[in-house]
User: Fold this.
Amino acid sequence: MTKVRDHISKAIEAKKTEFSFEILPPLKGQNIDTIFENIDPLMEFKPPFIDVTYHREEYIYKERPDGLLEKKVVRKRPGTVGICAAIQNRYKVDAVPHVLCGGFTKEDTENFLIDMDFLGIENVMALRGDAVKSETYFKANTNGNVYAQDLVEQIIDLNHGNYLDEDLQNTAKTDFCIGVAGYPEKHLEAPSIESDIHFLKKKLEAGACYVVTQMFFDNHQYFDFVKKCREAGITKPIIPGLKPLATRKQLNMIPQRFSVGMPDTLVKEVIKCKTPEAIRQVGVEWSIAQSKELIKAGVPVLHYYSMGKSDNIKAIAEAIF
Assistant:
């Protein structure tokens, strides 16, 4: 298999923009066919890699017969590693599993990475992850990584053959290529964009190879972010992440949940729509326009957030690739 950094380098050398996308694992109780049904229509556009998200545990409270509430841990979307292995086996395309700080001890993380190494998965996206819904702020597990930089450092340690158990002899080195997240409109917890870029640079200096951005709907946000990153001394590739707007509800949900702005023109176009289909079409057309401008600017990869549905991503890819 090939490292994502090499796919990016080839695209830069060829002066070509590649197509990639991200998928969600199916909800527990569904089978992998639901994933294949969404990936199959996109394979004609020859993605060099596909990201698979990881979803940490959630807490729910169930009422017991005595009336008291019992806290129960659930994981609604398991299967990230298995899906990545299935993708590489079925499509011969590199899969990029997301690895989180949240929900893992360092020992859990090491074992997770060992499993991926055994399966021939050589690319990972290192993320801190969000707080669980019942908590206001992110809280790391006891003996877990607190920041994405810590997670990158642990992965790099494994690449050097350094395991948590220092007594191990003749350890094998892994060879992971690491991606990290960047936030053109800053992470919602960051005090400023300059602070956010400072810590992004730390993640890259720790050993990450490339950046994929949070979604944005105004390309000027991306261009300004890249400019500021370059001025801060960041030289590694910064891949734009795009999500086509799909529902009216997302006009409020996306800014609230992701701290991402919506251009007035896009909002007005969505408000004018009379049907869900019309809103979905507006989202597709907006994303096509974004994509064309980004390709003209020479980005090596366009990365699309599919959120489990591929019909709108396919419509965009047909117009672009």
About this structure: The mean pLDDT is 92. The two ends are 23 Å apart (CA to CA). The longest strand covers residues 94-100. Strands lie at 18-23, 49-52, 58-63, 69-74, 94-100, 123-127, 177-182, 210-215, 238-242, 301-305.
